[in-house]
Design a protein that fits this description.
The chain is an alpha/beta fold. It folds into two domains: 34 residues, no CATH class; 264 residues, Methylmalonyl-CoA mutase (TIM Barrel, Alpha-Beta Barrel), CATH 3.20.20.240. It is built from eleven helices and ten strands. The strands form two sheets. The protein has an eight-stranded parallel beta barrel with strand order 3-4-5-6-7-8-9-10, surrounded by four helices. Helix 8 packs across helix 11.
Length: 342
Amino acid sequence: MQEVLQYSGQDWLDAVGSTSENIKSHIIFDDIIGASFPHPDLVQWKGEIHPMRTVERLAGLYLQNQSLDPLDVQSSKDLLFYALEHGVEHLKWSISDLNHLSNIPLVFQGVHLDMIQLSIPLPSGLNSDQHKNYIQEFIKLKGPVAFEFDQHTDFDLLQMQTLFHENANIKFNFIHSIQLNNFSNWSNKLLDSIKLFFQNNKYLLQVQYIIRLQLSKDFLSNVAMLRALRFLIAHEKWERVFIETEVNLHDLSDDPFHNQIHQSMCSLSAMLGGADTIWLSPNDLNEKHYSKQWLRTVLHTIHILKKESYLDLVNDPLKGSYYVEDLSQQFFYKLKSTQSHP
């Protein structure tokens, strides 16, 4: 039996030769360049100071602008149950008409919310009393619910403290959406934003910080950025920071077959990089009513990656890949270097 040789990073570089004509560059930004064969001065990856937290890689489905009109409740209920039947693990549900909030229990009647995660985006343009009424309608479901808000929502957490004490099942997720293509615009703000957020909400344990990464068409950059963010969370010991991914809707088209291919590649990169939830939209999202066929197909994309490829059983599938490690560490150190110092 032939002996298996184990090379270190430097041994591998020496074996390939630094002047090889096969060397190619993967240029992402002006100052982030990952070579197919890492440069010798970048090979020494300093490793994880703390082990990366295990991620769930949940199959997330975003059903946008659902009508709760009494005449249309049954169609929303059918869509919900169909998604549950085909294995949705994290459901995000947004409502188009707030005048029919009282119909929410009718739609979710019979749904065991303990079996899935439910996220509800808080509408913008509401005052504190309206937000409280909106939240209380979902509290009536008597299951775990996470309410999403961002910097544009005009939402005051402190005024919701009574809801915290009365309902242990609810959480509030602050959403920080970032685009990989705009790395230079947000990289210098991310760490300071997270630290300021927890400084202001130190004792509100039901509040979580969600980094929601809009995936680009660059497969390897998606993977490396997700790994870098996971390194960052582990390094800073943030226990209430989670990573979610979503497809940039501008990359989708009116062709559901094109959307299926694009969302499949994005799902694979999110699986390999490690995301807590992988948000997908039905492939015919530009249609007025989602078809069950495309809703089922997009959910099964995640389940194939999990149940047939077993990617959810490995915490970091690409650990040890020289190219991915090199690109990940460049993203990681770039994020660390942008942190402001008092």
